[in-house]
Amino acid sequence: MIALVSIEWVYLGYSMSFGPDVGGVIGDLSWFALNDVDNAPSLDYAITIPHTVFMIYQCMFAIITPALITGAFAERVRFTPFLLFALLWTILVYNPVCHWVWAKGGWLAGMGVLDFAGGLVVHVTCGAAALAAVLVIGPRQGYGRTSFMPHNLPMTLMGTGLLWFGWFGFNGGSALAANEVAATAFVATHLAGMAGMLMWVVMEKFIMGNATTLGAASGAISGLATITPAAGFVGPNAAIVIGLLAGVLCFLAVRLKSRFQFDDSLDVVGIHGVGGVVGTLCLGIFASTQVNPGGVDGLLAGNSAQLVKQLIGVVVVGGYTLVVSWILLKVIDVTIGLRLTAENEVVGLDSVEHSETAYN
Amino acid sequence: MNTGDTAFMLIATAMVMVMTPALALFYGGLVRSKNVLATTMQSFVCLGLVSVLWVVYGYSLAFGPDVGHFIGNFDHVFLKGVGLEAGPYAATIPALLFCAFQLMFAIITPALITGAFAERMKFTAFLTFTILWSTLVYLPVCHWVWGQEGWLLKMGALDFAGGTVIHINSGAAALVAALVLGKRKGYGRDSMHPHNLPMTVLGAGLLWFGWFGFNAGSALSASPIAVLALFTTQVATGAGALAWGLAEWKIQGKPTTLGVASGALAGLVAITPGAGFVSPVSAIIMGGVAGVICYLAVLAKTKMGYDDSLDVVGIHGVGGIWGALATGIFASSVVNPAGNGLLNGNPHQLVVQAIGVGATIAYSVVVTFIILKIIDVLIGLRVSSDDETQGLDLTQHSEVGYTL
Fold it and tell me: Which of A189, B49, B148, B163 has the most crowded Cβ, counting Cβ within 10 A?
């Protein structure tokens, strides 16, 4: 993803996402190969930092979004179709949605839909795409019958710690300046992450008897994903409430998955999809101009219109992503095929697709 | 408000946050594989638990308006009045950011203690302990040393980044915990080798990185003192790692990776109270001495027979005490006008530092002991003997670390 999307970003993505607007829908290609993107600040996006810094910061968001989707189809998709999907998805889904929500002239932005650090652009899109992927690709062989225990949970926990750390850059950095809004977003991020973790393990304790480390990790990521759209618009106490909600709703979503027999292998839909939706709506409920005078008021501050706008944002972005992702996957499946052969799935991707083994 | 300071403190805060997962790696690698998740979980859960407590009343009790030089009052419960304007503690950054920075310290301190009772404590007992200990020990001591009008601060005790508040405090609590809980089953008889040393070394590396945020960030501004603190941190840590390795080489025949990682940690701990007050050369001495005495303390533990499983007492306790006293020896008004130590003609500073050390140890030991005893009576501290044999991962969390 790092290599593929970065190249795409330089030659296509940045211009499509943030370039001069065409009808509110997409950027034109005048910034092809970073033409006109230099160290002078961009007056449209961040006036105190070089335009190149804004560009490369946004590149990192574009990279992680398709990487998040991979959790849905883990352990069964071939490498070549995966690369093709990631590239096409970035061009046809990520870039337009990013333009709608964040670019100057984007139509959702123009309507007043807000997304501080990527609840819609990153989490709703990857969650909806993950859902499409699960539907098209189907479960792993033996899903529901044999055990799919994580092979190395300490590694997962380390990943969670590093994600949490990086998320401060993701949300705090989305203020695009070292100012009060960055401080607000930073604090909200941490508090929602911890509230998500606590709530998830409390739910586990009550429903399943034992709090698990994987639950703590999943809860933290739920809280972090959920606060993302709202981070710079809400105060610390609202952030805790949002994190607690994330812990409950994402936990329930992940449990529901097994009822539907969906094999969203690593719970992208339950955590990022549900978290992104809940967070985007929570912005419409908890946002306060007392916290961020440059932001908006939400429902609790007497502005119900914002919640409606947020809802429209969720429906449009979720719907568009689901449909386009589904079509993309179907086309790739029919033409070159997505899945490994049954035999190769049993052998494992490492050996079949990469001629390697992780542990000796 | 200063954007440079704000940017620096945002990053420093994130770096201190990552120290807790780093500690989880450090500790996780040191235990047996049947307890890796439970050990990791104890650090991780502090991120959740202490954060809530901090918002609800912790910040207020630690940093709120003073009551009798002992504790803050309840003015800032639910962070009331902690906003985006600068507060009384840091003039150039939002008060909320100072609050977040301090929160990360409050998180890692109880996480440090977990090393002392690793592999045998019940999860519910651990949660209860963490809540009570943070409330009754951490918050008061934090107020004494750093709160406006705290009594140790007024007396002139120097603690740049938390030697007293964090390391001596957690080290003393760890000693009590190791004694009250007793040894692990089979301690001294069965082998209890670390199950994954590369993980421990990775954790040590990340801790070292995060510590720059911890110490340099304690300047609360992107200032020359922050530069000094960063530099002293680096060289003291290097000296600690080397000294421990060399001492091992001399005494046990071979330098070990665990020894070098522990030595680095000992150096980090020792320089913490002095980071912004001493010169780089003094820092090397402080770190080097820490490497040797912490090593000897860990060796002595085996002789004394208590089971401080992951050497919290030997490293954080002993290193913290040495660092606090050494600050009273090496502090120099040439590098920081805040104060002079013994070597610069001010023996009084060493006395003040010793009082700070003594008071913190005494308070932490007594209150920790009471808390642990109460929990032991009410819900029991230890898992059953069978559960201990099976491992905490399976019995406390229904999980296993590895299915390779």
Answer: B163
A78: left (phi over 0), alpha (psi -120 to 50) or beta: beta
Q: Can you give the pLDDT at residue A260?
A: 83
| Mean pLDDT across A321-343 | 96
What residues form DSSP beta bridges with A22?
Answer: A26
Q: Which domains does chain A have, with CATH numbers?
A: 2-143+156-349 (1.10.3430.10)
Q: How far is A35 from chain B (nearest CA, A)?
A: 30
pLDDT tens-place string over residues B246-279? 999 999 999 999 999 999 999 999 999 999 999 9
Between chains, do B398 and A151 touch, taking CB under 8 Å as contact? no
Q: Is this prediction's pTM over 0.80?
A: yes
B residues 251-310 lying closer than 8 A (beta carbon) to A = none
Interval A187-238: pLDDT, tens: 999 999 999 999 999 999 999 999 999 999 999 999 999 999 999 999 999 9
Closest CA to A140 of A208, A93, A71, A239: A71
CATH of residue B128: 1.10.3430.10
Q: Which of residues 302-361 of B touch A (CB under 8 A)?
A: none
Q: How many domains does chain B have?
A: 1
Beta strand pairing call for B66-67 and A21-22: unpaired
Tokens of A249: 């709703």
Residue B79 maps to a domain: yes
Tell which residue, A306, A1, A258, A255, has the closest CA to residue A126.
A1
Indicate yes or no: CB of A161 within 8 angstroms of CB of B44.
yes
> CA dihedral in degrees (A48, A54, A60, A61; nearest 10)?
90
C-beta separation of B187 from B307 below 8 A: yes
In the stretch 8-47 of chain B, residues with CB closer than 8 A to chain A read 8, 10, 13-15, 17-18, 20-22, 24-25, 28, 36-38, 40-41, 44-45, 47
Range of the domain at B182: 3-397
Residue at B404 is within a domain: no
In a domain, B403, yes or no: no
B134/B52 Cα distance (integer angstroms):
12
Spell out which residues of chain B touch residue A213, defining contact as CB-CB under 8 Å.
Answer: 37-38, 40-41, 44, 393, 397, 399
Chain A residues closer than 8 Å to B202 by CB = 158
**Residue A42, strand partner residues:** A46
Rounded to a whole number, what is the distance in Å from the CA of A161 to chain B's nearest CA? Answer: 5
Flag whether pLDDT at B404 surpasses 90: no
Please, which residues 105-164 of chain B have a Cβ atom closer than 8 Å to chain A? 123
CB contact under 8 A, B21 and A164: yes
For chain B, counts of helices (H) and of strands (E): 17, 2
Does B163 fall in a domain? Answer: yes
Chain B closest-CA separation from residue A65 CA (Å): 22
